[in-house]
């Protein structure tokens, strides 16, 4: 081992997605974000229909609308961040949840480290964690670095490989992961992440790529992929009893 590379921590890692996972989709944050992204497209001189079409197309093709914007339009990604994520009234939409904080406090830190894994930029991620009173419970944060040319995002394999590299963990089977995107969870599972859970709030609405999506019953629940589905993070205590105090 090179002297400038720390020894690998023997503990497993619990990776938590942030948006629509640490808080409910009922907050309508995804809707508010979708409106801002649509306005950003229109601000480029596109009519509303073309803006909607490109918003959805870029989200579908690249995982994030911003990635399409940086590839096909002359935009500053940090300007996008300021005008979209940066203007969300998060303090009005989400509040600390003592029950959620207790869940984090009950994770056995002798067994696991706790990291956040998000497709947002660090500013947004840090704002959410601060409002939720979880800053001191998160040991590390992996985010989409908008300032990096060709940045990756979930569900791309490179994003997960980079996350493991940042956290200095080499064994994917020691990764616990919960996310509200089935695609993100499936991608992690295919890479060998050992304990993957899909957080899914049936009956609520969210926005993906500018399109409203109603969360209906997922027929893939607990299927052959070995991915459990939950609607309340408290269920993690039952699914992962070995890492809770």
List keywords for this structure.
Rossmann fold; DNA polymerase, domain 1; 10 helices; 245 residues; alpha/beta; two-stranded antiparallel sheet; nucleotidase activity; 2 domains
Description:
It comes from Suillus luteus UH-Slu-Lm8-n1. Pfam families: Hydrolase (PF00702). InterPro entries: HAD-like_sf, HAD-SF_hydro_IA, HAD_sf, Pyr-5-nucltdase, SSM1_domain. This protein is α/β, with parallel strands linked by helices. The protein folds into two domains: 12-23 and 93-243, Rossmann fold, CATH 3.40.50.1000; 30-87, DNA polymerase, domain 1 (Orthogonal Bundle). It has helices spanning 29-42, 48-62, 65-72, 77-83, 90-93, 98-105, 122-131, 157-167, 182-190, 236-239; strands at residues 12-16, 112-117, 140-142, 175-179, 195-199, 205-208, 211-214, 228-230. The strands form two sheets. The chain has a six-stranded parallel sheet with strand order 3-2-1-4-5-8, covered by helices on one side. It has a two-stranded antiparallel sheet with strand order 6-7. The longest helix is centred in the N-terminal third of the chain and has 15 residues, at 48-62. It is globular and about 55 Å long.
């Amino acid at each position: 081992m090179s002297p400038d590379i720390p020894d690998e921590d023997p503990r497993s890692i619990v990776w938590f997605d942030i948006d629509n996972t640490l808080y409910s989709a009922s907050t309508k944050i995804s809707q508010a974000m979708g409106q801002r992204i649509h306005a950003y497209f229109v601000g480029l001189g596109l009519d509303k229909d073309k803006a909607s079409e490109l918003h959805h197309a870029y989200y579908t093709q690249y995982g994030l609308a911003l990635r399409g914007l940086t590839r096909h339009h002359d935009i500053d990604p940090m300007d996008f961040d300021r005008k979209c994520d940066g203007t969300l009234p998060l303090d009005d939409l989400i509040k600390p949840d003592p029950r959620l904080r207790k869940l984090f406090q009950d994770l056995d830190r002798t067994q696991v480290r706790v990291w956040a894994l998000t497709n947002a930029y660090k500013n947004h991620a840090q704002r959410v964690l601060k409002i939720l009173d979880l800053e001191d419970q998160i040991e590390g944060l992996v985010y989409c670095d908008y300032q990096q040319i060709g940045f990756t995002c979930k569900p791309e394999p490179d994003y997960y490989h980079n996350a493991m590299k940042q956290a200095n963990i080499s064994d994917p089977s020691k990764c616990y992961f919960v996310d509200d995107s089935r695609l993100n969870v499936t991608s992690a599972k295919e890479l060998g992440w050992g304990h993957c859970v899909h957080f899914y709030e049936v009956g609520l609405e969210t926005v993906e790529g500018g399109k409203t999506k109603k969360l209906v019953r997922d027929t893939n629940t607990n299927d052959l992929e070995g991915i459990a589905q939950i609607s309340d993070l408290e269920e993690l205590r039952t699914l992962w009893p070995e890492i809770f105090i």
